[in-house]
Design goal:
This protein is mainly α. The chain has helices spanning 26-47, 53-63, 68-74, 83-94, 99-119, 124-131, 134-139, 147-161, 168-178, 183-206, 216-236, 254-261, 263-268, 288-309, 313-332, 338-353, 366-374, 376-400, 406-415, 428-438, 467-481, 495-501, and strands spanning 422-426, 443-445, 450-452, 485-489, 504-509, 519-524. β2 (443-445) and β3 form a beta hairpin. The radius of gyration is 26 Å and the shape is elongated.
């Protein structure tokens, strides 16, 4: 349990000898203190965070899949591997409340913070700023998605890397799991796996460095990494009827290249606006000077990292392959949001962590490399200050403003004992948030013309449905089942439609960070 080890031991641990193996090190005490403060801040923030559709979607998939095989079938439209959802399945059998997912997610984030503050080769100020930074405290702690578990596995890899020749099987297991957390983590896994293979082949095969007596576990580790990558890729192969992010952008467009490259600053300086629409915003983008220097700054950051890592090929390969791979994915497939861009930052942190444990080669540009490494601590601290300010701003804005009205809408429905009614919901991806908080098994989604809870991102739901058609479907259900029907909309009906069908507007919930997750409740009574 992370105890300070010493070859000598005292016969009486209660004497608290400094050589006692039962006394926690100062680094461990510091890590425990930061983690405790993180849990307190994160717990209070999570209590005030209303989850939105992307968080609830994962919970509904895990909750309403009767078996693992059914979960994989339901996951085929998601664009991510299933590891996060597999973790949620047993939790969803304990309770139907998605709050369980929030608790689990916060514990994952806290574990990452503990491992980082305990083992990362950075100073205490940097560890503190990182722990309460935008990604660690908010994006991958409060917003419960599959990305946090990927960041945890990256952190575990960094801890193990120093002992990679003795722990290669464990590294293989960690990277196998990492590949199955998200498509972005898969790209990072490919970069790490390739770099480790190059390191092994060059330094231990070509240079004939001494290997451990039993090197079979090294090859087992590589096999696990390869299987993890292959099986993750197979899961990401979309079905022919997928209806989300179906396009590919292979045509070269310099303007698009520059716009995608600018995402590096989005990841390195995540400072949101202090307003309701803070999430995904970037305060620095409003500054004219920053807009002018943004693109050159991105290339300068990449050049600086190359100079730092060039004498350490393992770190260099991981950084270049992961960074270029992520940017290429954003270019050709899906530009994403800041939660996706964060993997650019964690690639930088990962390679900076393993820097000193990576084998070094001799190059004639020692001065430039030394200068790039010499200024690392100062630059890294400056970057983390932006992360810290971004984290505090995000937490404050999430506390001040309603993130999504899904929770409030569900609470109103429960308070008025309407949760057992037939429900019709549109737009489906917005209404699914309410469904998750209600613990309801299914509602009728006119977009797709089917009952369900989670959203199935296929082509059947890509057609638009008019408000009149939604009310007609609701009236048909009311007549068919001889019951009143509750209609949940994320937009208002026209007055003429309300009068024509004698609808009753029960309540409206508007004004939230996720603008599309304001809701209006209408009641259509059985004739």
């Amino acid at each position: 349990m992370f105890l300070q080890q010493n070859s000598e031991s005292t016969p009486n641990p209660s004497l608290k000898s400094p050589n006692s193996p039962y006394i926690l090190s100062k680094d461990t005490y510091y890590a425990l203190g930061i983690t405790s403060a993180f849990l307190l801040a994160g717990g209070l923030a999570a209590l005030h965070h209303e989850m939105w559709r992307d968080e609830i979607q994962a919970w509904l998939l895990a909750r309403d899949s009767a078996s693992i095989l059914e979960l994989f079938a339901n996951m085929k439209y998601e664009g991510h591997p299933a590891f996060w959802h597999l973790c949620l399945m047993p939790l969803s059998r304990i309770t139907a409340s998605p709050i369980m997912m929030q608790v689990f997610h916060l514990l994952i984030a806290a574990t990452t913070v503990f491992l980082f503050t305990r083992f990362a080769p950075f100073n205490k100020i940097q560890k503190f700023l990182f722990s309460f930074g935008y990604f660690a405290l908010y994006e991958y702690a409060i917003v419960a998605r599959n990305y946090a578990i990927g960041v945890l596995l990256i952190t575990i890899f960094c801890v193990l890397y120093k002992y990679r020749h003795r722990r290669h099987v464990w590294i293989g297991v960690v990277l196998f799991l990492l590949a199955h957390t998200s498509v972005h983590a898969l790209i990072v896994t490919i970069a790490i796996g390739f770099a480790l293979l190059c390191e092994f082949l060059y330094f231990y095969c070509c240079k004939e460095k001494e290997l451990p007596e039993n090197d079979q576990h090294i090859w087992i580790g590589f096999v696990l990494i390869g299987i993890g990558i292959l099986t993750a890729v197979l899961q990401l192969n979309p079905p022919s009827d997928t209806g989300f992010a179906v396009g590919w952008h292979f045509k070269f467009d310099m303007q698009r290249v520059n716009n995608i490259t600018k995402l590096i600053t989005q990841a390195m300086f995540p400072l949101p606006r202090a307003s309701m629409g803070f999430w995904g915003s970037h305060l620095l983008n409003q500054n004219t000077l920053f807009q002018f220097i943004r693109l050159p700054l991105c290339y300068l950051i990449v050049l600086w990292c190359i100079l730092r890592f060039i004498k350490r090929p393992t770190a260099l390969f991981i950084y270049l392959i992961a960074t270029v791979g992520l940017l290429a994915f954003f270019y050709v497939k899906y530009g994403g949001s800041i939660r996706h861009h964060g993997f650019l930052f964690f690639t930088f942190v990962l390679t900076s962590w393993i820097y000193h444990d990576s084998p070094e080669i001799n190059l004639p540009i020692k001065t430039l490399c030394g200068l790039a490494q010499w200024c690392f601590s100062f630059v890294f601290t400056c970057i983390l200050i932006f992360h810290f300010l971004g984290g505090i701003t995000a937490i404050a804005m999430d506390y001040r403003y309603i993130f999504s009205n899904g929770k409030r809408t569900a609470e109103y429905i429960k308070q008025h004992e309407m949760q057992e009614m037939f429900m019709v919901g549109d737009t489906d991806f917005a209404v699914s948030t309410v469904v998750g908080y209600l613990g309801k098994k299914e509602v009728y989604y006119p977009k797709g013309s089917r009952f369900g809870s989670f959203v199935r991102w296929d082509k059947d739901r890509t057609h638009g449905v008019s408000n009149a058609k939604i009310v007609e479907a609701s009236e048909l259900l009311s007549t068919q089942y001889n019951q009143d029907v509750l209609i949940i909309m994320n937009r208002k009906f026209e007055d003429a439609l309300i009068e024509q069908y004698q609808l009753t507007l029960l309540k409206s919930f508007t004004g939230s960070t996720i603008g599309s997750e304001g809701f209006h409740l209408y009641l259509i009574r059985v004739n």
